[in-house]
Amino acid sequence: MDCALSQGVNFLDTAELYPVPPTKENNARTERIIGNWMQARGNRSQVIIATKVAGAMPGMDRSYIVANRADPPLDFETAPQPNLTREQILTACDASLRRLQTTYIDLYQIHWPARYAPLFGGRQYHPDRERDAPSIEEQVAAMGELIQAGKVKYWGLSNETTFGVCQFCETAKRLGVPLPVSIQNDFSPMLRAFEGDLAEACAPSNYNIGLLAYGVLAGGALSGKYLNGFDTSRSRHTLFPGFQPRYHAKRTSDAARELVEIAKAKDMSAATLCQAWAASRWYMGSVIIGATTLEQVQENIAACLTKLDEETVAAMDALFLKYGNTTLAD
Questions:
Q1: Any idea where the NADP-dependent oxidoreductase domain is (predicted)?
Q2: Are the C-beta atoms of 177 and 141 separated by less than 8 Å?
Q3: What does the alpha-carbon distance between residue 273 and residue 300 come to, in Å, rounded to a whole number?
Q4: CA of 306: how far to CAs of 72, 77, 246, 278, 313, in Å?
Q5: Alpha-carbon distance 54 to 51, whole Å?
Q6: Residue 96 contacts by C-beta under 8 Å, 6 or more apart in sequence?
Q7: Distance CA 113, CA 134 (A)
Q8: pLDDT tens profile 150-170
Q9: Which of 6, 101, 144, 312 fits a disulfide with 177 by CB distance 3.0 to 4.6 angstroms?
Q10: What does the alpha-carbon distance between residue 320 and residue 259 come to, in Å, rounded to a whole number?
């Protein structure tokens, strides 16, 4: 974080869920790390802090998220599951403020929809999976309360669909709540689902919502490091092989091989190529980068400052047409 801030990176994205993959033992640790860092450096005014509130995830026990909102934590065995009710949103925000050691959050995001929607690699909508959930009106009103209280400056969405964006924005207009300013969705050179009707809804002439892209390297897969000859002993998909399986598809590996060749022809790494391409999109608010070494931080920052020529952009488009959205599952 010191290195990134010294080079102009001032937007830090986290969540009450993080780090991932989450466990009872590590849950909410990322917010605490950032809070301790800001406290030690005295640099709160220099950074933009974004965090997220977690909702229900059917089939998964995430009661520890709710338990960890209290200080001291509640009993994990009796704590309820997270859900995006007004009460839980307000309580989660207070917990994030405490862990981040700040009086306000710059950007507070709904981590994923409370309602059923195709998420995390899903591409088909299944009506039989619909479920009861807190209303969009209740969620928007809670965000409005937090803004009125001065605890949140702006709010945003994450892992949302075009339908969801439109519903949230129209509800906010009706309730007199400021519109969401951002949407944090999975996006990469090989996952460009955002570029159609979702980009239209988020365009400056419509709801004016910027994309915060995560997964630009498909969890590292598009960097080419999981191909032969690279040491991945400390990499995410090696340490956590069951995490984010959508990034493990054979088509993603095949695309990565060709991305590496396109990058070599331009004397850059595949990671630089992917991030530079993402940063150049007209709808991009910010490219969210992840790093476990200082070298990766340096490469990621340099990548977002790299300009691609028309030939390279055309090669990226052709590769996408060949492989399609490689990290979509069903």
A1: 2-319
A2: yes
A3: 10
A4: 46, 49, 28, 11, 12
A5: 10
A6: 16, 31, 51, 53, 105, 108
A7: 10
A8: 999 999 999 999 999 999 999
A9: 144
A10: 10
Whether the predicted pLDDT of 123 surpasses 90: no
**Cα 244 to Cα 119, 195, 241, 248, 270, distances in angstroms:** 12, 22, 8, 8, 20
What pLDDT sits at residue 320? Answer: 94
Strand partners, 286: 212
Containing 50, the helix (H) or strand (E) segment is strand 48-53
Tokens of 85: 């009710």
Give the residue with greater pLDDT, 31 vs 60: 31
Q: Encode burial over 164-175: b for 16+ CB neighbours within 10 A, e otherwise.
A: bbbbbbebbeee
pTM for this prediction: 0.93
Name the residue among 298, 303, 299 with its Cα closest to residue 2: 298
Cα angle value 279/96/298 (rounded, 5°): 30
Q: Which two tokens stand for residue 190?
A: 């090989």
Rounded to an integer, what distance in angstroms lies between the CA atom of residue 130 and that of residue 80?
Answer: 21
What gap in Å lies between CA 306 and CA 324, rounded to an integer?
25
Cα–Cα dist 170/196, whole Å: 20
Across 113-143, b (16+ Cβ under 10 Å) vs e yields: bbbbbbeebeeeeeeeeeeebbebebbbbbb
Give φ, ψ of 325 to 5 degrees.
-80, 90
Q: SS3 breakdown of the chain: % helix, strand, coil, rounded to 5?
A: 45, 10, 45
Position 273: which residue type? L
Beta bridge partners of 214: 186
Q: Which of 61, 212, 58, 60 is nearest to 126 (CA)?
A: 58
